């Protein structure tokens, strides 16, 4: 299943916010069609790691390649990279002045320069795929949290990204809405999307993850398969963390 | 929407016929407006019938187009200046930041009247001298191309353009003070736009950038539309203030309504009549403006409207 060339290669990346060391020498390879789940306590650098992959954060040391493009290079057009890397945020970050379908169409038009009719067709397809085609013309503030997050996923997917990053996509949701979002993500994983997912939903990790990465205090402490994670967690801090969230 | 109507609430038709809430709202919230309209009608009638007021109106009314012209042109210029300066004020480039901050502080710090006088009597002659060359012997030494261009623009006869130099008295007082208004209100409005841009959460910019938009695309398609919508009430306020401030143009003999009123009233010694007509015009212009702004605002807030 796993191909040889990683589509994301993170090598010895370090990042500080002032005196806070958010990432310490983190390395991680993600292969095409792989689902990697990243877990760890709050403040351990999970978001920062994801945000370095599409350069929403810069990093001081180390190298990252995305689909063969070296992010550390000055000449790299980061917007090209970002168009291939979809991101889903904890707080959805939908554009509130636009309807659901306009949210899904905007970047297609502005970045991909697709003709209007094509944008609309693709947007409808994506809304269909995440299960809310009937909400196309509704402004996002009128949607439930789960629906908003699904629009956000559709918005990212409409760009036909090669990679999807999820930063705690269900953490801001009421419990009854978590499943509808996880189901969309599970389907995506089944279709073979390459995904890096920060989440504490262990059910999702068990069902979809090829590998689980445990981070603590900016370090990657453990990288293992989901089954090994629960049966023999090697690290003390990982055991402690698992005992808290399970 | 029909499908949203709960069957339990039933009395759709009864609510339709009941005009009491509407009447109550009209009396409690709109009485001022009704009073205003009545007063307005009274004055309109007087202006149409009273011979002195007819004469007063005819004299002053000529200036309405000038007042509106200054207001609209200066406001549009101020919006452009304000948005550009707002970007300067949030810029990380220290030169751009400091230059735009200096401009804002200066123009906010000086009284508009003083700025108008400076533009009419210092800046305009200075710029004209610079363009035409200060010796004014006829053959331009400064910027001959610009000199001829402006002369054509302000309607100097074509055969004279090449031989004469631009003189500051050729420049209409209206244009002497247009930039005083535009720059002053540009400074005010840059603060409005800056606050508007900063009121949009960081997540919006991040979402736009994560989709591959450039900084400017994100600003243009995501941040600014929301920011402008948020600052619309403040913009409308500025527009009304600007409209009223155009009365200051009268000090440099721009024939807008305040200037004409002063001229007319002192010549004929008819202050009550002149000021009545003047107030009538300003009050109606500002009320119409406020209503237009309100309409625009509700239209732009389509997503917050009850559906
Ligand atoms: N923009 C920022 N400014 C300053 N410190 C930050 C910023 N973002 C994150 N941090 C700090 O970096 C560390 C890692 O944060 P983050 O990657 O968000 O952790 P996680 O997502 O695992 O909760 C934390 O100590 C956090 O306080
Ligand atoms: Mg986080």
Please tell me about this protein's structure.
- The complex is a heterodimer of chains A (246) and B (307).
- With 246 residues, chain A is α/β, with parallel strands linked by helices.
- Helix content of chain A is 37%, strand content 24%.
- In chain A, the strands form two sheets. In chain A, strands 6-7-8-3-9-10 form a six-stranded mixed sheet, sandwiched between helices. A four-stranded antiparallel sheet of chain A has the order 2-1-4-5, covered by helices on one side.
- In chain A, strand 4 and strand 5 form a beta hairpin.
- The radius of gyration of chain A is 18 Å and the shape is globular.
- The two termini of chain A are 29 Å apart.
- The model of chain A has no long low-confidence stretch (mean pLDDT 93).
- With 307 residues, chain B is mainly α.
- Helices cover 76% and strands 0% of the residues of chain B.
- Chain B has 13 helices and no strands.
- The longest helix of chain B is centred in the C-terminal third of the chain and has 31 residues, at 215-245.
- Chain B is flat, with a radius of gyration of 26 Å.
- The relative contact order of chain B is 0.12.
- Mean pLDDT of chain B is 86; it is low at 1-11.
- The A-B interface holds A 54, 56, 79-80, 82-83, 85-87, 89, 91, 93-99, 106-107, 110-111, 138-142, 152, 155-156, 159 and B 201, 203-204, 206-214, 217, 221-222, 225-226, 229, 302-304, 307.
- Bound molecules: adenosine-5'-diphosphate and magnesium ion.
- Magnesium ion binds next to helix 1 of chain A.
- Magnesium ion (MG) binds at residues 46-47, 167-168 of chain A.
């Amino acid at each position: 299943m796993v191909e040889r060339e990683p589509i994301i290669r993170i090598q010895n990346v370090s990042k500080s916010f002032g005196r806070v060391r958010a990432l310490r020498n983190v390395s991680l390879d993600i292969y095409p069609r792989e689902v990697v789940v990243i877990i760890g306590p709050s403040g351990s650098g999970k978001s920062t790691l994801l945000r370095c992959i599409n350069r929403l954060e810069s990093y001081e040391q180390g190298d990252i390649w995305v689909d063969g493009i070296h992010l550390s290079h000055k000449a790299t057009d980061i917007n090209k990279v970002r168009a291939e890397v979809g991101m889903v945020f904890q707080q959805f970050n939908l554009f509130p002045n636009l309807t659901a379908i306009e949210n899904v169409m905007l970047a297609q038009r502005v970045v991909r320069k697709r003709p209007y009719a094509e944008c609309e067709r693709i947007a409808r397809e994506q809304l269909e795929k995440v299960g809310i085609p009937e909400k196309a013309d509704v402004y996002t503030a009128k949607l439930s949290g789960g629906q908003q997050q699904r629009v956000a996923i559709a918005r990212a997917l409409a760009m036909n990204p090669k990679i999807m990053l999820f930063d705690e996509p269900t953490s801001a949701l009421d419990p009854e809405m978590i499943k509808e979002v996880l189901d969309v993500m599970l389907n995506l994983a089944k279709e073979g999307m390459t995904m890096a997912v920060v989440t504490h939903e262990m059910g999702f990790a068990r069902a979809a993850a090829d590998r689980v990465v445990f981070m603590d205090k900016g370090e990657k402490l453990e990288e293992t398969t989901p089954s090994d994670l629960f049966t023999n967690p090697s690290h003390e801090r990982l055991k402690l963390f698992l005992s808290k969230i399970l | 929407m029909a499908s949203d109507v709960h069957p339990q609430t039933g009395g759709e038709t009864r609510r339709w016929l009941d005009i009491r809430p509407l009447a109550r709202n009209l009396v409690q919230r709109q009485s001022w407006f009704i009073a205003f309209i009545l007063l307005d009608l009274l004055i309109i009638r007087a202006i149409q019938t009273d011979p002195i007021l007819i004469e007063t109106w005819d004299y002053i009314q000529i200036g309405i187009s000038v007042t509106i012209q200054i207001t609209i042109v200066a406001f549009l210029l101020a919006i452009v200046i304000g948005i550009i300066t707002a970007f300067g004020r949030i810029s990380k480039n220290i030169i751009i930041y400091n230059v735009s901050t200096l401009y804002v502080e200066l123009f906010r710090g000086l009284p508009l009247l003083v700025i108008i006088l400076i533009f009419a009597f210092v800046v305009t002659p200075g710029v004209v001298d610079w363009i035409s060359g200060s010796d004014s012997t006829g053959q331009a030494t400064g910027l001959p191309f610009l000199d001829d261009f402006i002369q054509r623009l302000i309607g100097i006869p074509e055969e004279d353009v090449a031989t004469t130099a631009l003189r500051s008295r050729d420049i209409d007082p209206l244009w002497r003070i247009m930039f005083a208004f535009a720059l002053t209100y540009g400074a005010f409005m840059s603060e409005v736009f800056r606050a508007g841009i900063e009121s949009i959460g960081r997540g919006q910019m991040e979402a736009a950038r994560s989709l591959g938009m450039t900084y400017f695309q994100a600003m243009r398609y995501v941040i600014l539309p929301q920011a402008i919508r948020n600052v619309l009430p403040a913009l409308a306020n500025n527009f009304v203030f600007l409209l009223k401030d155009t009365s200051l143009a009268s000090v440099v003999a721009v024939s807008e309504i305040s200037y004409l009123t002063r001229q007319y009233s002192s010549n004929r010694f008819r202050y009550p009549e002149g000021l009545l007509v003047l107030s009538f015009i300003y009050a109606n212009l500002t009320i119409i403006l406020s209503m237009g702004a309100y309409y625009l605002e509700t239209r732009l807030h389509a997503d917050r409207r009850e559906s």
